[in-house]
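Morning. Coffee machine broken again, so started the prediction first thing and wrote up yesterday's gels while waiting. Chain of 337 residues, entered below exactly as on the submission form.
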Amino acid sequence: KHVQKTTRRAIKKIHTLESPRIKSHLLNALAILWQPTDINGDPVSDNSLSIEILLQCVEIEGGMDNAKIDTLTLLARAIRYSPDNPQENLRKAKEIYQKQLPRAKMEAPHLVCGILVNLSEVERELGHSDEATRLKREEELLLEAQKHISLDPFSEDLLLGRLAWNYTSQAGSLWQQYSPEAESMIQKALNTFESIPNPSSNDKTNWKTAKSISHKIKGNHDAEVRNHRDTLKQERNSNLRATTQHNLAQSLLKHPHTTNDMLLEAISLLKEVLPIRKNNIRHHWEDLFQLSQAYTTLCSIAFEQTYHKKATNYLLLAVEASKQLGNGSELFLSVRL
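Came back before lunch.
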């Protein structure tokens, strides 16, 4: 709160300056302060405040059609991570990125890599197709971004982190399809994580997840669970901790020798993270869907009317969440179960 008050005092001071260029430059710098690259590892993060500041920049620079590309791409990022109306925010961010990409290629080629990386993330989150198609589209955009990395070396960490996570997700998807390509894909992911010069806290958590998926693909499910438990002991950030809890719950549910106690632990973990992950609709759907699966599996082990009722209730909630994600694979999976 003290930093926010200081920021607002700075904004008032900046607006007393005569030069529009200097005002815009200083406001832009303040906005960056409130939307750090490592959103999960930096305590100074307030996308709503960043949006407020950037809209002032846009006005100074002559409106949305004339504002600087870097101002608009920063605005898109702040909108994207704002917790209110997440799907609508993703659509708004995508529109800004798509509109600025041709401009960047002509006027500011050093911004092309960053725009493509952010566009790839937004399209993946929107999810207007099946998972495999989404992941391939994301990979295409990231590899296109890689061609421009020499002009924007500061985006290298971000690009490699996203590419490594894309390969991790593809490996998990291939494993679910019993594809022999899963093992080579997860090795590709691990190699890419290894190549990140300065991995963020999010990259480090994703890297550990990739190692767990590698254990799963190789059939070592106990090592997969142990890896998640070790990560959970070390993780302090609430968002990343919730992600690890979700991953542990998933591993317990998918374990080939799952027990009643493992299912109950998975349910407890998923219920605990529901309020933390609910602002991301895809994450919220995942948690609800897995809770419905957990209770369904419990019913198959020892049928109880309460388990059946809870499985149905969570499934209905998952269906409602999947509708916000469009007509992708999430809706199909929810309706099919």
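DSSP finds 16 helices and no strands in the chain. Going to sketch it on the whiteboard this afternoon.
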